[in-house]
């Protein structure tokens, strides 16, 4: 007999039929214009959490912002890929001699267009070295993350990277963003997205606010997650990311809008962050949990 499916929203204590949404601001730490927008989206908009990219130029500023704002929940956006080549390559956090299989011919992180090459050569023990280095930098800064997720690699991009991340999350007491069907099966019984995952870079720019509004009205029952990418569209961003800054600016505009707040209220959508999810993953909220 097939066991009834329990939605993640119900595991988290919401009633049957509730629509629950995590609005996670990805790429925190990439650069100043993104840092500003992420903080604004969480403190004054509908953003509920963010993910910090440790190898990026703005990571130091981002961590300082988090220290000054301990109420902002954040995860670690585990980064093996550099997508902003115009602002200079992102090196690894670990010493290059320890993670050679993760680096291109210039000794830097691979670009998104070379993800297949990266995944074909990356040695799992070196991925672990780099992931641990990124987590430890955050902990050494006195910050307490809620979860782990990946930059440009869906569910880690490779099964052994996914499994490594689960192991690190268990070691550090963190949740993991899981949204692929194979990943959901692997972690069944733990709260993960019940519904299709939204990456805001998949949305077109024309009519984007109306599309967001429609998605809120049609949000399905259960736990959903939006990975949004707010940015202020400053001069630096326009130069560094000519193909992406408009995505970030339009995300920021909707997240900060009165329309977004009113829609959430009218539709009765619960917006949460990863703290409750983390409690389940760490065992503290499971029946008989430690």
UniProtKB/TrEMBL annotation:
Name of the featured protein: ChbG/HpnK family deacetylase
InterPro entries (UniProt xref): Glyco_hydro/deAcase_b/a-brl, YdjC-like
GO molecular function: deacetylase activity; hydrolase activity; metal ion binding
Protein's GO biological process: carbohydrate metabolic process
UniProt cross-references to Gene3D superfamilies, sorted A to Z: Glycoside hydrolase/deacetylase
Keyword Hydrolase attached: yes
Ranges in coiled-coil conformation: none
Key words of the record: Carbohydrate metabolism, Hydrolase, Magnesium, Metal-binding
Phylogenetic placement of the source organism: Bacteria, Bacillati, Actinomycetota, Actinomycetes, Kitasatosporales
Organism annotation: Streptomyces flaveus
Cofactor requirement: Mg(2+)
């Amino acid at each position: 007999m097939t066991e009834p499916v329990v939605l993640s929203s119900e595991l988290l204590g919401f009633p049957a039929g509730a629509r629950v949404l995590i609005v996670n601001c990805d790429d925190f730490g990439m650069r100043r214009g993104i840092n500003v927008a992420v903080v604004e989206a969480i403190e004054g908009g509908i953003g509920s959490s963010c993910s910090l990219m440790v190898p990026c130029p703005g990571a130091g500023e981002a961590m300082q912002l988090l220290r000054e704002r301990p109420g902002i929940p954040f995860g670690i956006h585990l980064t093996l890929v550099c997508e902003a080549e115009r602002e200079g390559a992102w090196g690894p956090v670990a010493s290059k001699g320890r993670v050679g299989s993760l680096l291109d011919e210039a000794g830097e992180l691979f670009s998104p267009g070379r993800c297949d090459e990266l995944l074909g050569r990356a040695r799992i023990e070196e991925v672990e070295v780099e992931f641990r280095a990124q987590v430890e930098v955050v902990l050494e800064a006195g910050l307490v993350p809620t979860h782990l997720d990946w930059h440009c690699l869906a569910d880690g991009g490779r099964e052994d990277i996914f499994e490594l991340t689960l192991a690190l999350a268990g070691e550090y007491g963190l949740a993991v963003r899981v949204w692929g069907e194979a990943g959901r099966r692997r972690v069944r019984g733990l709260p993960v997205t019940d519904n299709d995952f939204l990456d805001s870079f998949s949305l077109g720019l024309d009519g984007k606010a109306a599309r967001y509004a429609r998605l809120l009205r049609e949000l399905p029952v259960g736990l959903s997650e939006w990975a949004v990418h707010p940015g202020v569209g400053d001069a630096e961003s326009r130069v560094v990311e000519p193909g992406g800054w408009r995505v970030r600016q339009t995300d920021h505009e909707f997240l900060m809008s009165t329309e977004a707040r009113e829609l959430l209220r009218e539709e009765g959508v619960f917006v949460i962050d990863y703290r409750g999810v983390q409690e389940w993953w760490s065992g503290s909220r499971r029946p008989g949990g430690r």
